[in-house]
Amino acid sequence: MRKVNVLAALPLALLTLAYAQSPISIPAKPLKLPGETQPIAPGTRRAAPIPEITLTPPVAQVLKIQYLSNGHIEVAGAVVLLQPNEVDQARQLAARVAARTLAARPSLSEVDVSIYNKVGYGGFGGPLPILTLSAPRSRINEVAAWAAGSATYDRAWEALGSVTPGGGDTGKIADKVREQTINFYGSVDQKLADARTRSASQVKGGIQDGLLYGGNILRPLAALTFDDAPHPMYEPLLLDLLRRGQVKATFFVIGRNARAYPYFVRDMVQQGHEVGNHTYHHVRLPPLSLNAAITEMSLTNQTLRRLTGQPIKYFRPPGGDYTPQTLDAARALGLSTVFWTDDPADFQNPGDAVLESRFDRKLHPGGIVLLHDNAVETMNVFGDFLKYAKRRGVSLTTVSEMLAGKSAGLMKPASPTQSAKKGLNIDKLGQGH
Asked: Measuring CA to CA, which of 153, 207, 246, 343 is 20 to 30 A from 406?
């Protein structure tokens, strides 16, 4: 008999009341709140410096222009800071910086420009930019026409007239936590129940009670997932590698990043990848109220549906931190919570050789590989990782295709199993953000 989660079917008000009457056990040491500095994971090494481009003569508003290669193409990312009285020049300045950068380095394939209000600038993960632009070299004339106001351009985003720090965002700062371990917070009985669910999922494979810890170990498939997407400069490099390797992946997207860089989310879907929910602000959920947790997930669902036209099926909690109410918030939104089996800790900058050995050691059928879309060393060794997976006979694919037992023609699709799902219409929940 299928176990029904009663709390997931309750209205929001009753769900909140249920948890108010049954408090969750949180560790004595309080969890970090949004905006606080996160501890560095043990073993983390300083990342190698990213090379920079200097424009001559300089553009005063340019903070930095960095560039990277994936071994096939080079992409630059420019950060530009404007004073409030310069905001009306944002389009023209973005186009000028893109054109000057491409001229300064002929090997570049693309320049991605992020323009911020200098007042309140907090780096990537701080207040949102007021304008972003993706300028492939082949489309620089279209960019110029857009900047001049004589044409539209589909790879630019503007904060719709908001000139406040954050470009109309709520001002909440993203946690800098990385997904490393799976951490459940709850009472003793809740922890025992969660352990049983986790064990059942690992043994049976597939989604158990709305949770996914791994797939069927008898099928030569593993899910390839990337967290924290999309990131300017890195995203074109990663999508290019996946295209060359003919591999599809699931991207767990931060809602605010999707809002500021919508064209990269559209690229993912157009290229056959899958997008999942990674909260709107990339915040740890256990300290939040149920209403706040639902808001984080609901805003991201709305943003991604608007960009892709597709329903969102999967959720991953930042840092791997979750509670019973986190899971019930996800279920109420129709989301299955996806964890991982293989985490090579690419964000720790362990060195290419160490990262490769971790890939080799951990990859297995039914696995869920956790990577980050902005890790330089992953770019360096990704081609070798794909070759290793092929030698092992493991096909890397999306979460949905792993569950369905198919991938890029490797296997015949498994017989579909239809299951009736009852859910709440909660599109309006948490919109008072």
From this structure: 343
pLDDT (average), residues 216-235: 95
**Max Cα distance, the chain (Å):** 71
CB 254, CB 279: distance < 8 Å: yes
- Between CA 336 and CA 209 the distance in angstroms is 8
Model pTM? 0.82
Average the pLDDT over 288-294 and give the result: 93
Catalytic residue among 273, 346, 372, 373: 372
The answer to whether the beta carbons of residues 392 and 360 sit under 8 Å apart is no
d(CA 23, CA 185): 11
Write down the catalytic residue from 227, 267, 321, 343.
227
Map out the domains of the chain with their CATH numbers.
Answer: 62-158 (3.10.310), 176-404 (3.20.20.370)
What residues have CB less than 8 Å from 429, skipping those under 6 apart? 12, 294, 295, 298, 332
Quote the CA–CA distance of 28 and 30 in Å, as a whole number.
Answer: 6
Q: What is the DSSP string of 220-272?
A: SEEEEEEEEE--TTHHHHHHHHHHHHT---EEEE-HHHHHH-HHHHHHHHHTT
The per-residue pLDDT of the chain, averaged, comes to: 82
Q: Supply φ then ψ for residue 84, to 5 degrees.
A: -55, -35
Rounded to whole angstroms, the Cα distance separating 205 from 207 reads: 7
Is 227 labeled as catalytic in the residue annotation?
yes
Helix crossing, 376-392 with 234-245: angle to 10°? 10
pLDDT tens for residues 1-56? 444 444 444 444 444 444 443 344 333 333 333 333 333 444 445 567 899 999 99
DSSP assignments along 2-63, one per residue: PPP-TGGGS-HHHHHHHHHHS-----SSPPPPTTSPPPPPTT--PPPPPPB---SSPPTTEE
175 included as an active-site residue: no
Give the CA-trace dihedral at 283, 288, 293, 299, to 10 degrees. Answer: -50
Interatomic CA distance for residues 337 and 334, integer angstroms: 10
